Amino acid sequence: TEMSNPAPPKLLELAAHSLLNNEASVLPALEEFTIDLFPPLLTAAFARGHKKALKALVQAWPFPFLRLGSLIVQWPNQDSLQAVLDGLGTSSAPSACPRKSELRVLDLTLNFEQVQSKGASEALARFPFWLPSTVKAEMPQATTKPKPVEDSRKGLKQPWETVELHIDLFLRGPFKLDTFLSSLLTKVERSHGSLRLCCRKLHIEEMPFNSLIGILKTLELDFIQELEVFDWFRALSEQSLFATQLGRICNLRSLKLAYYHWAFPPEGEQSSSCFLSQLSKLGHLQKLHLSYSYLSGNLHQVLRCLQAPLHALEIRSCTLLDTDITYLSQSLHATCLRKLDLSGNNLSYMVPGPLETLLAKVSGTLQHLDLNHCRLKDAHLSAILPALCCCSHLGSLGLSDNPVSRAGLLSLLEHTAGLMELKRVLYPIPIECCVYLHGLSWGPVNKGRLCQVQAEMQRLLQAVQRADMQWSPPLP
Length: 476
Description:
It comes from Otolemur garnettii (Small-eared galago). The protein is of the alpha/beta class.
């Protein structure tokens, strides 16, 4: 019956808690356990903070993979995590723990949806070095097949084999290592290769440079797929050393650099120690995000270093020139881009001209376009509309903080209604509803007028039968 279905898990949970109340009995019992008892027992031990039992369970874990993200979110307890860590890389004496661990991958990444349902804060507040990951960790091919065992209950007694620790790191200054993270790094350093620290997503912000290099040297660089660095590297020696480390992250898919002090060699000259030469080694790079950096007239030096076409390019507030936009439209990236973000650059003097050409080139693949705070007025929008309306795959469009009138906004809506995949538009507050100064909106918004404009937009959406489009103003 339906009432009887929940009974076995509850009885199993009660049995697990009963066993854990006497932690000394866990170790001898491990040899007799069938492998299906390990997950509920480890969950119960993690929930109650039974450190000795957790250490023993990890030392005898019968599966190649252990994912702790959901447990971390539900019971954010560093002592429990420390106990799990203590169980790694330790070969137990046969009399103490006769069962050999099959663990090859310990996954500590957090699931974004789980963190959101938890209130998005508790786990991260206690574990500030973790960044929620929307990418489920995949076991490397070398670990997908467990080692053959002679006996499924006792296992083979062999030296401890390499274990990968999967973690996403969010490191922000003023920098002081978290207790658990410090312990983790120390254990990895002292493991002589038996523990490999594998970070898929690494975010670094305002860290002392020596600490940054130390972290990078501890990580398995070929495992990093997303790197975000928000820092100033003023000294040439720092730039060179960071560039060398970057060149070793051979499987990098996404790179974000903000406030980076670019040092471009004179045209026609090449430097073996230049950041650009290391950038050229990133053969798998698909997403490049550059922001708050001075790139005027030098975008071509960055883009021509890349070996493969980018799928996403974000160049925010980098004082781009028309020559930069022209080069981008002629590059191999233009016909492959799915996302393009040019927000924060003054594009007003590039219309008519390079901007329409670029939009025409990306129209076959583009799905997300952001032109926020680009000083575009009604005439500029009218000029780019023909090219914009050719972007048949466009799903989202950002145009906030551009001095556009009510009439220009309604015209934009009417003309883009034919883009059937366009569902989300972030539109600017019309000039009738606020004051714009130097391309930025200033002062309070006239909410009454804005409500009138929004009502007109809703009527127009109904008239063109596009109730599925969501037009939203920017947040205050």
